[in-house]
Write a structure and sequence with these properties.
Elements: H1 5-10, H2 29-50, H3 57-65, H4 71-74, H5 79-82, H6 86-104, H7 109-119, H8 126-149, H9 156-169, H10 172-181, H11 189-200
Domain HD/PDEase: 25-150
InterPro entries: HD/PDEase_dom, YfbR/HDDC2
Keywords: Hydrolase
Length: 201
C-alpha cells in the first residue's frame, strides 16, 4: 500500500493562519506547528525543573507537532468565527473530527494505532492537551505581538484577548515562559547578537 499521509502533511505549508486579518508577516500552519512544539517542549521542562512537575517534554513536543493536522482538510478557521456561536462551534468540531479520521486513514494499517493519540482529539493525552493549548496560545500571542510592534492595529484586540486567555490558564510554567522569553522575540538579529556577546565573554 502506498500512503498519502506525509504528502498531506507537506500541504500544511500552504494553509495560512489569521485569514480574516491583514498580516504584515504571513504565517502558515506548518511553521506554527513547529513553534508550538518547541514551546510545549520547554513548558514541560520548566514544569519538571521549576515546579515539581512530572510530564514528558518529548510527548508534549510530538503532540504539538500534529495538533493542527486536521487543517489540511478544513483550513484554518479563525477563532472569532469558530466560537461565534454554540451551533458554529459544534458544527466545526464535528467537521474537525471527521477530518482527523480522514487523515488517520491515509496511514498504513499497522501505523494507525500509534498515531491515534496524536491525530484524534478525543484520544489526546490529558496532560498533553493542557500544555499544547498553552503553547498554542503563546504562539498566537507572539504573532499578535509582532504584528502590533510592526504598527498593524488589526491585531490590537487579538493581542489583548489572547493575553487574557493566557493569564486565565494560571499555569506557573506559562508565567515563567512569558516573563523569561517573550520580550526578546522583538529584538533584531543585531540586538540578539549584541545581547549574546557578554554571556560568551
Amino acid at each position: 500500500m502506498t500512503s498519502k499521509f506525509f504528502a498531506y502533511l507537506e500541504r500544511l505549508r500552504w494553509i495560512k493562519r489569521w485569514g480574516l486579518k491583514r498580516n504584515v508577516v504571513e504565517e502558515n500552519v506548518m511553521e506554527h506547528s513547529w513553534q508550538v512544539a518547541t514551546i510545549a517542549h520547554v513548558l514541560g521542562l520548566i514544569s519538571n525543573r521549576k515546579f515539581n512537575g512530572d510530564v514528558d517534554p518529548n510527548v508534549l513536543a510530538v503532540a504539538a507537532l500534529y495538533h493542527d493536522v486536521s487543517e489540511i482538510i478544513t483550513g484554518d478557521m479563525p477563532s472569532p468565527i469558530k466560537y461565534h456561536s454554540e451551533a458554529i462551534k459544534h458544527a466545526y468540531h464535528a467537521i474537525e473530527r471527521e477530518a482527523e479520521k480522514e487523515v488517520l486513514s491515509t496511514l498504513p494499517d499497522e501505523l494507525q494505532n500509534p498515531f491515534e493519540p496524536l491525530l484524534l482529539h478525543d484520544k489526546f493525552d490529558a496532560a498533553a492537551v493542557k500544555f499544547v493549548k498553552a503553547a498554542d496560545l503563546i504562539s498566537a500571542y507572539l504573532k499578535c505581538q509582532m504584528e502590533v510592534a510592526a504598527g498593524n492595529k488589526e491585531f490590537d484586540d487579538a493581542k489583548a484577548d489572547v493575553e487574557a486567555r493566557i493569564r486565565a490558564l494560571q499555569m506557573p510554567e506559562v508565567e515563567y515562559f512569558m516573563a523569561t522569553f517573550v520580550d526578546s522575540y522583538l529584538l533584531t538579529l543585531d540586538e540578539l547578537l549584541k545581547h549574546h556577546d557578554p554571556v560568551r565573554g
